[in-house]
Amino acid sequence: ALTLAEGATVVQNLTVLKADAKITGTVMDPAGAGVAHAFVEVSKVSFGGIFNEASEEFFKDVFVGGAETDASGAYSIAVPAGTYFVKTFVHPERGFINSKEQQVVVASGETKIVTMKLLVADSAITGHIYLDERPVPSAFVWGLSKDGGFQESFSEGGDGSFRLNVTAETVWVIAAGIE
């Protein structure tokens, strides 16, 4: 942590790691076709791990890299050697559920291929978002599953109602936020 007084200037040296390995692959829809414009994230933390870690420790030393898939659903991300969790993010309006995260270990000079398959919702969590007993019509709503899944939505209409499409096979923890 760095604390600065108003008007102060501080020089802070940063150490970077060499991205000498790659994680590549394809994001596919449930039928096996490549999905364009999906975002693939590589990080040192698991969404599922948030259920087991103290929150202040969970986000320490988090390397995050990412890429958007091309027209065929392919992606490539350069990373330092290490252990990572690969996650997908697609806009909920596309009708898919983000794939479950995958753990991958990649060595220096190595390329690992990780195929991510999006899911189809078979259940939904519905409700209303309130702030001081007033409905919130445009809150961001998200859910994390214990097996590393992620899904997002927004509350709509004057009543603050939301629908979060999910898969029924796992436990979801949901939250909401507004600016």
Shape: flat
What is the tally of beta strands? 15
Strand content: 35-45%
So how many helices? 1
Poorly predicted runs: none
Q: Report Rg.
A: 19 Å
Taken in chain order, the helices and strands follow as EEHEEEEEEEEEEEEE
The secondary structure category is mainly beta
Structure description:
It contains one helix and 15 strands; from the N terminus they run E-E-H-E-E-E-E-E-E-E-E-E-E-E-E-E. By secondary structure, the protein is mainly β. The strands form five sheets. Strands 1, 4, 7 and 8 form a four-stranded mixed beta sheet that branches. A four-stranded antiparallel beta sheet has the order 3-2-5-6, with no helix packed on it. The chain has a three-stranded antiparallel beta sheet with strand order 13-12-15, with no helix packed on it. The two termini are 25 Å apart.
